[in-house]
Design brief:
With 34 residues, this protein is mainly alpha-helical. Helices cover 88% and strands 0% of the residues. Helix 1 (2-15) crosses helix 2.
Length: 34
């Protein structure tokens, strides 16, 4: 699941700038889940 979310975030960052902001606030949450 972690791999899927990480891949999705990378693709979203390049696909939509909206995900970029979400990505910045996700790193801390993603690390906690891992």
């Amino acid at each position: 699941m972690s791999s899927d979310i990480r891949s999705s975030t990378l693709h979203s960052e390049d696909s939509s700038p909206r995900y970029r902001q979400v990505s910045i606030g996700h790193p801390p949450i993603e690390v906690r889940e891992e």
